[in-house]
Design a protein that fits this description.
5 helices, binds 1,3,4-trihydroxy-5-OXO-cyclohexanecarboxylic acid, 148 residues, Rossmann fold, alpha/beta
């Protein structure tokens, strides 16, 4: 079972950016948290981050044929990137959208996700645990033999 975790813009600033919203842990802490959990459930995980929309689209395209599922936190692109939504729809891989913060509890513009309709579901507001739950869901609900 291979899962690609794609993190979008400004997530590399975790630990520095708005700690009252995102907490004090760093992006390296997040990577380690995801990798440790994936290892414990025997999922092969690759964790990537980019601040560029095109790179995120390229990662999604690359996942087709190499990965069994995607966990994606598109950052602010969530709210307006039809290109990322289209890429997820194009590859048709099972995907779960994750947000560290509760996007429904914040500014109005964050309440809408244009990317979530291209995903199986969305988890938000649970911090790092959202990634763990997304991987757990995919590991239990999708077949991984295609890319083993
Ligand atoms: C975020 C929520 C987005 O609204 C924001 O632009 C981010 C992070 C989250 O994980 O809570 O960059 O995706």
């Amino acid at each position: 079972m291979k899962i690609m975790v794609i993190n979008g813009p400004n997530l590399d600033m975790l630990g520095v950016r708005e700690p009252e919203v995102y907490g004090n842990k760093t992006y390296s802490d997040l990577e380690k948290y995801i990798e440790d959990y994936a290892e414990s459930v025997e999922v092969e995980v690759v964790v990537v981050q980019s601040n560029s929309e095109g790179d995120i689209i390229d990662y999604i395209h690359y996942a087709l044929g190499t990965q069994d599922g995607i966990v994606i936190n598109p950052g602010a692109y969530t709210h307006y990137s039809y290109a990322i939504a289209d890429a997820l729809a194009a590859v048709k891989l099972p995907a779960v959208e994750v947000h560290l913060s509760n996007i429904h509890k914040r500014e109005e513009f964050r309440r809408k996700s244009v990317t979530a309709p291209s995903c199986i579901g969305q988890i938000c507001g649970l911090g790092f645990d959202g990634y763990k739950l997304a991987i757990e869901y995919l590991a239990e609900n999708i077949k991984g033999e295609q890319n083993d």
